[in-house]
Amino acid sequence: MAPALPDDILHLLCEQLAEQEQFDTLFNCACASRALAVPALTHLYRSHHRAPVHGGGEDEAVPMATKLLMVQKWSILWKSIINSSLDAALFPYCRYIRALDFRDLDNLLDDDQFKVKISKQFFSGPLAQFYKADTITRQNGRKFDRLNVTAIIDAIGEIVTQHTPTLEVISGKILSRALVRWVPRLPRLQVLELWDGSTLEDELVSACIYQHCPTFNSLMIFSWFGQERDHKFAKFIGAMRPNSLKAITTLSDIGAGAETFLALNAHGESLKELRICVSNESMPHLSLLAGCTALEALRIEDVHGSIVLEETQNDVFLEMIAWLRKCENLQRLSFTKVLSASSIVTPLLLEHNIHLRTLEIDSYVLKDSRRFHQALIHQKDSLTFLSLSGDTDGMFRDDVDTIVDSLKQLTQLRVLRLLLQEVFHEDHLIAVINNLNLLEELYVNGLELNDRVLEFVGNLGNLKSVALAGISKFTTDGLLEFVSRLGPGNQGIRVMIDMADPDTLLPDEEVGLVRESLARKVGGTLEYTPWRDPNVSEFEGESD
User: Fold this and answer.
1) Residue that wins the pLDDT comparison between 241 and 34
2) Contact criterion met (CB below 8 Å) for 450 and 481
3) What would the pLDDT profile of 4-31 be if each residue is shown by its tens digit?
4) Which of 74, 125, 326, 386 has its Cβ near the most Cβ atoms within 10 Å?
5) Alpha carbon distance 498, 469 (integer Å)
6) If residue 342 lies in a helix (H) or strand (E), which one and from where to where?
7) 55 Rama sector, left if φ>0, alpha if ψ -120 to 50, beta otherwise
8) What is the pLDDT of residues 320-364, one digit of tens each?
9) SUPFAM superfamilies from the entry (predicted)?
10) Is the Cα dihedral 222, 44, 97, 217 positive or negative?
11) How far apart are CA 333 and CA 385, in angstroms?
12) 408 pLDDT higher than 80
């Protein structure tokens, strides 16, 4: 008999399986022997929030029977966690988890399959105490019970958080009074992801975090409505330990403005990631973030997308550039609906001490951005991800040649997304693709795409995803030749042909032949969609 592996080796092996999301293997390990059960289950539940059953699988195309099975597994995952907090499970799963995603539990409780077919079984035995519902009377006088999801999550969280000593992340619709109760039990809490920022308006929340969570460093907020939001958010930020916050994310306009930006300067040496939504009111105050120079990732979204800073607020425009040029650790930069983005970014691209790895810009005018396109070359040794989208009206041949000349020199790119309508001819795309041998993901538009493009795309030995979104006239032979060029590095490739020319549309049986060939060669998939004129109704010409 082979000697048993030491416990530390078993934990290391299970940790690697969890990082690779090999959940089935971990489950089999847990069933194989008692020695393996504890390390396998520990890492299985530490990673439970990444399990494929989360969200019910999130695939709307699956058959109803499969969907029901997925929701059943989803509910069992949550039931096992809750049962373990009640000592009603074989292992203390609760003690292993690092992330508690109440958004996911909320989605489960609101799922139609769950409400109709699973809820009765879920709220049985020890979990019966968590069943909370409001009686609703319909117009016809009939009554029914509607789950009170907020009350259920509050009750479950109250119990579960008493048994989660390693918890680092809490997400969801969480009441202020709930956080005040839970936080003192969670000394390792680092991250809050809140559906509603008004949870932070209670000063007891910030006081509890300050007192009991010395490693708290990250906050994400989906929405926030009400009065004086800027002041209240700034007050919360100011109540944290100076230079303790590392990441701030807002997923909508939550009213963050001048006070919030000034407050963030108290974390200027620690703040590494800032993803902020701004409005017409707050955009002119962005330069107040000038003290946040340790940033490694910055994303700014203008929810209105109507201000051209260099024309209307030139002083702010220049101050923003001066601030960002001091961010020498900046690696990931993204602007959404910021009309001055290319003008702001151009000086940064020329900075010798800034080495961007990711750059995303939309909503810019390409014909006015030649200096920006030329400046991209200065980041050719570091840039691995580039996404460009903007207004292509008025471009001349020289403008197109400039951007093509720059793109083909960015030889370190792994991801290239060019959402640029009616700009590139086939030769332009070939010139770019032929030089970018490291590409793993490619999204391109084109005026007309033929088999020649496929030849060069097929030579990209690391490609895992390709979307050809221009009007295409690919032949069956061309697609099969493309498939024949793929190799081991293209395993699992996803191919999307989004705008196949209706005049040269391939028959279903030939598309099926290509799909079979692609699956057989590299386990890949093909999505083949005909182009439709957006000005013509899908039903035009059809009789009743």
Assistant:
1) 241
2) no
3) 556 677 667 767 777 777 767 767 776 7
4) 74
5) 5
6) helix 341-349
7) left
8) 999 999 999 999 999 999 999 999 999 999 999 999 999 999 999
9) RNI-like (SSF52047)
10) negative
11) 10
12) yes
**Where is pLDDT greater, at 193 or 58?**
193
Confidence (pLDDT) at 543:
42
Write b or e for each residue in 25-45: b if 16 or more Cβ atoms lie within 10 A of its Cβ, otherwise e: bbeebbeeeeebebbbbbbbb
Q: How many CA atoms lie within 13 A of 252 on its CB side?
A: 11
Give residue for tokens 């990082």. 19
CB atoms within 10 A of CB 484: 11
Is there a contact between 188 and 165 (Cβ–Cβ < 8 Å)?
A: yes
Q: Which residue has the higher pLDDT, 64 or 288?
A: 288
Task: Decide: residue 146, CB within 10 A, 0-12 exposed, 13-18 middle, 19+ buried.
Answer: exposed
The DSSP annotation for 16-39 comes to: HHHHTT-HHHHHHHHHH-HHHHHH
Which SS3 state, helix, strand or coil, does residue 335 take? strand
**298-322 pLDDT, tens per residue?**
999 999 999 999 999 999 999 999 9
Q: In sequence order, what DSSP letters do the residues of 214-259 get, joined into one string?
A: TT--EEEEEE--SSSHHHHHHHHHHHSPTT---EEEESS-----HH
Cα 323–329–332 angle (5° rounding)?
Answer: 90
Confidence of residue 143 (pLDDT cuts 50, 70, 90): confident
- Which is nearest to 232 in space by CA: 261, 202, 191? 202
Q: How far apart are CA 449 and CA 213, in angstroms?
A: 56
Strand ranges, E, within 252-313: 273-278, 297-302
CA distances for 429 relative to 456, 462, 526, angstroms: 9, 18, 21
Average pLDDT over every residue of 27-51? 70
Quick one: tokens of 51? 């399990």
Q: Do 170 and 189 meet the contact criterion of CB atoms below 8 Å apart?
A: yes
Is the separation of the CB atoms in 239 and 203 below 8 Å? Answer: yes
DSSP helix/strand/coil, 194: strand
**Cβ atoms of 174 and 155 closer than 8 Å:** no
* Number of separate helices (H) and strands (E) present in the chain: 21, 17
Q: How far apart are CA 302 and CA 282, in angstroms?
A: 9
Structure tokens at 40: 């396998």
pLDDT tens, position by position, 88-97: 888 888 898 9
Q: Parallel, antiparallel, or unpaired for β 143-147 and 133-137? A: antiparallel
Q: Are residues 362 and 337 in contact, defined by beta-carbon separation less than 8 angstroms? A: yes
Cα angle, residue 467 at apex, residues 464 and 469 outer, rounded to 5°? 170
The owner of tokens 């139609």 is 112
- One-letter amino acid identity for 193? E
Residue type, 62: V
Higher pLDDT, 247 or 498: 247
Which 3 state secondary structure label does DSSP give 362?
A: strand
